[in-house]
Fold this sequence. Notes:
This protein is an alpha+beta fold.
Amino acid sequence: QAYLSYSNIAALTHLARKPGWDITKTLDNVRIWTHEEGAVLSFKVEMQVKVPSHVAFSLLSDFSLRQRWDRHFLTCKVLQAVSEEEKIYHVTSVPMTGHQPRDFVILVSQRQPCRPQEPYMVAVRSVTLRTMPPSPEFCRSEILCAGFQIHSNSSSSCTVCYFNQVTSGVMPYLAANLTGSSKSIEDTALECIKFLE
């Protein structure tokens, strides 16, 4: 578990530091970037939020609040509290037209910064749990690497960056985005900002 947790945080740090991100969309307080490497597509959503970084961190690291702003989340329940900083959740998502509803078993690892210039981190990856095998009513999907980095701008504002390395499991939700209309990602980002503020 210690290794999984470490690799979860390390994978998100590595993804965030990759060179070659292309900006695809700029709004007032949201910027969307993509990064392609072979068959793997990653995206980053950068949001300017008018709350202190520690407040954004406490709200974003609690995935049971996620349905309040992310309409892709249908249900989200804690399966196991591994430690104060790690929880395993079972998430079900809204079915897309023509697709079976999907579910995910994810490890969410949260870290506070060790030094002032470092971001708060909330890293997400799929794990397997014997007590939660795939069920016939859902298509079990995988998250390779996703999560948030929260950088403090001032005592009352921060930059929230959401990252996701996209697999075929998440692809139906982003297909519209890849054809140039990033409405779903934009709307979710705006809902996230509204929720945090």
